[in-house]
Amino acid sequence: YARRTHKFGIQLPNSVEEALAIDRETNTTFWHDAIQKEMKNVRVAFKFLENGERVPIGYKWIRCHMIFDVKMDFTRKARFVAGGHMTD
User: Fold this and answer.
1) Alpha-carbon gap, residue 47 to 52, rounded angstroms
2) Among 3, 11, 41, 50, which residue's beta carbon has the most beta carbons within 10 A?
3) Nearest Cα to Cα of residue 16 among 45, 47, 39
4) What are the backbone angles phi and psi of residue 47, rounded to the nearest 5°?
5) Positive/negative CA dihedral, 12, 69, 22, 36
6) β-sheet bridge partners, residue 67
7) What pTM was estimated for this model as a whole?
8) DSSP letters for 20-70
9) For helices 30-42 and 16-26, what crossing angle results, to 10°?
């Protein structure tokens, strides 16, 4: 499947690092603000482990990533998604 690189003429990042780099290049905070808003909303649903911290017994480590989009009013949208399809 073909991944879009732009929507409404705005570059769509593939990672958080790329989103922040786009913000630095354009001297804006649109992607940063979208990431912060999403992480504030999902913080209650996820437990983020510190470096070196082990997964508690009875829980499973699941890979997560961000998906980026541009809405019709040109606001940036970031979604934090878990790769549940990758679990056994």
Assistant:
1) 14
2) 11
3) 39
4) -110, 115
5) negative
6) 79
7) 0.77
8) HHHHHHHT--HHHHHHHHHHHHHTTT--PPPTTPPPPTT-----EEEEEEE
9) 140
